[in-house]
Amino acid sequence: MASADVIVISGGIGGAATALGLVEEGAEKVFDFDEHLPSLRLSRGNLGLTWFMCKGTNNSVYAEWCRMATEQWPQFAARLEKKTGYHLELEWTRGAIQAFGEKQYNTYATSIESLKVVCTEVGLNYPVRMLCRKEFTELLPDIQVGEDVTGIMCKVDQGHVNPKKLLDAVRWAFQQKGGHYYGAHSVTAIVPETCGANGKNQ
Ligand SMILES: Cc1cc2nc3c(=O)[nH]c(=O)nc-3n(C[C@H](O)[C@H](O)[C@H](O)COP(=O)(O)OP(=O)(O)OC[C@H]3O[C@@H](n4cnc5c(N)ncnc54)[C@H](O)[C@@H]3O)c2cc1C
User: Fold this and answer.
1) Any idea what DSSP says for residue 156?
2) Could you give the domains of the chain?
3) How far apart, in whole angstroms, are the C-alpha atoms of residue 120 and residue 9?
4) Which tens digit of pLDDT belongs to each residue from 5-59?
């Protein structure tokens, strides 16, 4: 029976990134199990947005994580690309969400203010703002804005990545670093034992 120092259950982006972090931090024998066929995984089929905008209105820890993670995206992507040879297709163009009508415009404006407070409390800025139609069309004249749009929540320093390539690169980097990935393997039970060498579970 094989033995591991750490077993990660999930080869989605959460599990794969955790497994990579573990081997990068020096964990010796890390196994990553995933039961899905690669084509079925949520982590491959999402929109790939690398945003912090709107995240964590009711949860300051989540807001802080999203803000910090987004700041680190360009360096993280460059490092992963260099290490693996994958092109993650990160486009650091901007993020924008349209508001329809006055009510939604005001709701968005209020959420920006509350996220500013949340981020300031943990020493981070929250440089998001509402643009009126005129400001937005002057900023991006090539984008046609629908008539019902009253304003746009906008931020420059965020973008999107190719989620499929990201997942492949993270998993590849994990294996390059000596991690063991087991696709199409379901973990059906976790049974603690004390019989392994050095007290390690088997
Ligand atoms: C429509 C949509 C759009 C989204 N857009 C974005 C976006 O733009 N940006 C963004 O950051 N996020 C986005 N998300 C959210 C993002 O996709 C998820 O947060 C992320 O994929 C979750 O990754 P995960 O690894 O936690 O879960 P998953 O990708 O679901 O991975 C979990 C894996 O664990 C495996 N597993 C579970 N139990 C076992 C077991 N017992 N044994 C072995 N394997 C097991 C499953 O097979 C699965 O492959 C979006 C989500 C949706 C639905």
Assistant:
1) S
2) 1-48+162-202 (3.50.50.60), 49-161 (no CATH)
3) 36
4) 999 999 999 999 999 999 999 999 999 999 987 667 799 889 999 999 989 888 8
User: What is the spatial distance between Cα 151 and Cα 92, in angstroms, rounded to a whole number?
Assistant: 22
Report the distance separating Cα 8 and Cα 51, nearest Å: 26
* pLDDT for residue 197 is more than 60: no
Reported pTM: 0.90
**Which residue's entry shows tokens 């991690």?**
179
Separation of CA 23 and ligand 1 centre (Å) = 21
Average pLDDT over residues 52-71: 89
Pocket of ligand 1 (CB under 6 A): 9-15, 33-36, 41-43, 46-49, 186-187
Report yes or no: 182 and 141 within 8 Å, Cβ to Cβ: no
The Å distance, Cα 12 to ligand 1 centre, comes to: 6
